[in-house]
Amino acid sequence: MSEPEGAAGPTVWLLTDDRPGNRSQAIGAARALGRPFEEKRLAFNEKAKRATPRLGATLETLDDVSQASIAPPWPDLVMGAGRRVAPIARYVKERSGGRAKVVLVGRRAPGGFADLTIRCSYFRQAPDPTLLELSLPPTKIDAAALAAAATGPDPLDGLPHPRAVALVGGPTGRHLFSDAFAGRMAQELAAAATAAGASLAMVTSRRTPPSAIAEMRRNAPTADIREWRPGGGPDPVAALLAFADLLVVTGESESMLAEAAAAGKPLTIVPLREKPAGWKQRLRDRIAAAAQGSGPVARVCARAMRDGWVSPRRSLADLHAVIVSRGWGRVFDGRLNLDPPAPREEDSLVRERTEALFATPVSEKAA
Questions:
Q1: By three-state DSSP, how is residue 66 classified?
Q2: Domain residues of the chain, as ranges?
Q3: Would you report the helix, strand and coil content of the chain in percent, each value rounded to 5?
Q4: Can you give the pLDDT at residue 9?
C-alpha cells in the first residue's frame, strides 16, 4: 500500500508487521506526517522471536520475499511500530550511511538508534531528547478514513438511531476476559442501551473466545452480536466507527481505544481486570521507577529502557484516566456516555517533530 502521490520531497518507507495494532499505529504516524509513503508489509521467520537489542542491524529475521524488498535506493525516512521492525529500520539506516532517519512507534520498539521514538505518556518512559510522548497512540483512523468509509455500505443498516456499537476484544497476557465477564458485560450494555433509547451492536475480534461469544448471545438476546475473524472479510472497524452514533470499547487495547477516540463520537470504556504482576514485571517496574531519578543508576536504567532491554508496564488504567481527563470518553458505570468528545490535536506534534529530522545533518543524529 502506498499513499497517493503528492509534491516531490523526502521519500518515506513504512515498515509494518502482521499485528493490527502495530500497523494501525504505524499508518497513523505516517499519515500525520502528511507526505506520500510506501508501505512495506513484512513477513518474519523464527529468528524474529529473539530479543531485538541483540540483533542489531539485520534482515535475517525476514523471509526471502521481505528481504528482497529492503533494497536501494534507500529512503530519507523509515517509520514503523513494534519491536520486530527495529532491526530492519536499523539496517536501512546503516546501509544508507546514516542518511535515512528512523522514527519508531510504541512501547516495545527499542529507540537507542532511532532519531525519534513516539510513545504514550502512560508508558512512564524515562526522559530522553529523542522521545515524543502522546496522550494516545497514533492511529490509521482519521477524518479522511472516516469520510471514505461513510461513502460505502452501512454495516448497521436496519438498526434504529441512536446506534451504539461495542467493539469487543478479549484476553491478553495482562488482562482477564472470562466467559462470565463477557456475559455480564453484554447484559449490562444491553440494559444501558435500552435506558439510553439506543440500539446495540456488539462486534467481536480475533481475540474474543467463541465460548465468550456464546455467553454474550445468551445474556443479551436483544443485541445484534456480530463475529469477525481475520479472513472473514474486510476489517469492519472504519465503517462501524463512521456509522455509529455511540461507541463502547473494551479497555485492554490502546489501539482500539485510540481508533474509537479518533472517531469523534461519545465513547464508553469497559475496563478488563488485570492479572497480578509476576516477579519479572515487578523488577521491570522498579527499573522504570529508578530511571526517573538522577545519578549513575538512573542513567543505566534509562539506557536499558531506551535500548529496549526493559519495557515499562502499560498502565491501561492510566490511559483510561487520560481519556476521561481530556474529555474524550468515560468509564462504564452502568450508563452509556452520551457526551460528545473534546477535540484532539496531537497529529501536529508528530508532524512537527518528524519534519524537523529532515533539517538535521547526519553528524547530529542520535547515536
A1: helix
A2: 12-135+347-364, 143-274+316-331
A3: 40, 15, 45
A4: 78
Reduce the DSSP state of residue 90 to 3 states and report it: helix
Distance CA 250, CA 101 (A): 36
Say whether 143-274+316-331 and 12-135+347-364 share the same fold.
Answer: yes
Minimum mean pLDDT range among 25-29, 271-275, 308-312, 320-324? 308-312
**CATH number assigned to the domain covering 12-135+347-364:** 3.40.50
DSSP assignment, residue 62? B
**Which of 203, 202, 201, 199 has its CA nearest to residue 161?**
199
pLDDT score recorded for residue 323: 96
- Evaluate if residue 59 carries a pLDDT over 50: yes
The pLDDT of 166-191, averaged and rounded, is 96
For 149, 244, 261, the CA distances from 154, given in Å and listed in that order, are 9, 10, 20
Domain 143-274+316-331 is of which CATH architecture? 3-Layer(aba) Sandwich (3.40)
The residue-averaged pLDDT of 45-60 equals 80
Fill in the amino acid letter for 160. Answer: P
